[in-house]
Amino acid sequence: MSFIPFELEKWQSDYEDDIQFNLADSGVHPVALGELVEGPVAVARLLETPLHYPPVNGSRCLRQTISALYEGADVDNVLVTVGAAEANAITLQALLEPGDEVVVMEPCYRQVWGTMQNLGCRVRVFTLDPANDWRPRIDELEAMVTPRTKLIGVTNPNNPTGAILTRKEMNRILAIAARNNAWLLADEVYRGSERLTDTETPSFYGAYERVVATNSLSKAYGLSGLRIGWVVAPRGTVQQIQRRHEYATISTGMLSMRMAERALSEPLRSRLLARNRKLIRDGYARIESWVQRHNRLLSVVPPQATALVFVRYNLKMSSVELAQLLRRKANVLVAPGEYFGVDQHLRVTHGLKEEYLTEALNRMTVTLEGLVSDKRVRSPSAGR
Question: Could you give the angle at the alpha carbon of 114 between the alpha carbons of 345 and 62, nearest 5°?
Fold first, then answer.
């Protein structure tokens, strides 16, 4: 079987170490260790941590803390993983077999899409509509899901668009899954990153017996370096997924688990979410102003969540070509829309320090204005 590389992650791996301004990442400015471990008591407890193997499925304290975030869950519904990346991968390994029919949302972070392909599944996509604020085309989903469909994959809030499913949209997706006895894999790593409200996006977990929800500390919490993620699923399914976890990584790290226990406990959890929402809101205001200054060339549907904007550009070149040009000429790394299944867009992160983001955008401006001078602008109707 041929292997499909993860193009977005390869792009970042190839260039992120040598770039001056990285706007291709997908989180906010990271939290420092000192923001998690404050005071002599906390420091002493950390220094006393025994560096042996932690519980393979996650410490009971951490699983209890995570389960409290999901209505109807308990510790046996939770598996702690190495980020949401492992959570998604081993869930798909546990639930799917070669030849299975699956459906996944697009545009989307394509880990699930690519893993399905590499497992030998028959993959179809249902799309978000850019002309309708990236709302899901649920009639399209309903038409393609049949009793042969093994799994539906969604990301909510969405990466790269920042769109959040409404309750009505969630209920329709759940009804389609239930009617066809399909699993629903809900990647919810951007819960807590809402831009327009302090109310957290509801989880799909618990609304239907065949839902698996995944999440991590990377996006809404600003703690990607801890590499802590989790699966929340029915108990028997968690056990199946854990058997794959034991092959892949055995466990996460003891220190990371201790830090995760602190991060997800109140009042620190609320403080972290508030910190990161402020970065998101301030960053979006800057990037929105930048897009408006170049409205002949750029446009964006305002995201409801995430530290991301999915910027549409009006140039006669592919998103990979444009991203390469910005990398070489502006020393700024952005993510090509092609790697999310939608060309003529760039994914740009903005939940960063003001001076860093401002300088990166200024450098991009110089390069983009040069392209306008070279008459690389498309006609107004092109690509619409």
Answer: 100
Q: Classify residue 45: in a domain, yes or no.
A: no
CA dihedral over 295, 297, 298, 299, signed as positive or negative: positive
Whether 380 is in a domain gets the answer no
How would you list the strands of the sheet with 335-336, edge to edge? 298-299, 308-313, 345-349, 335-336
Does 378 fall in a domain? no
Number of domains in the chain: 2
Does residue 295 share a domain with residue 255?
no
For residues 296 and 352, membership in a common domain is answered with yes
Size of the chain in residues: 384
* pLDDT tens across the length of the chain (384 residues): 689 999 999 999 999 999 999 999 999 999 999 999 988 888 998 899 999 999 999 999 999 999 999 999 999 999 999 999 999 999 999 999 999 999 999 999 999 999 999 999 999 999 999 999 999 999 999 999 999 999 999 999 999 999 999 999 999 999 999 999 999 999 999 999 999 999 999 999 999 999 999 999 999 999 999 999 999 999 999 999 999 999 999 999 999 999 999 999 999 999 999 999 999 999 999 999 999 999 999 999 999 999 999 999 999 999 999 999 999 999 999 999 999 999 999 999 999 999 999 999 999 999 999 998 766 666 544 443
User: How large is the C-alpha radius of gyration of the chain?
Assistant: 21
Backbone conformation region of residue 275, classed left if phi is above 0, alpha if psi is from -120 to 50, else beta: alpha
CB 91 within 8 A of CB 255: no
- Name the phi and psi angles at 27, rounded to 5: -120, -165
- Provide the CATH number for the domain around residue 283: 3.90.1150.10
* 351 exposure class (CB count in 10 Å sphere: 0-12, 13-18, 19+): buried
Which residue in this structure is represented by tokens 């991968």? Answer: 89
Give the whole-angstrom CA distance, residue 356 versus residue 344. 25
Q: Are residues 278 and 248 in the same domain?
A: no
Residue 383 belongs to some domain of the structure:
no
Domain residue limits at 227: 50-265
Domain of residue 170, CATH code: 3.40.640.10
CA 303 to centroid of chain Cα atoms: 13
* 311 in the same domain as 203: no
Q: Dig out the tokens for 347 from the structure.
A: 């994914």
- On whether the CB atoms of residues 309 and 347 are closer than 8 A, the answer is yes
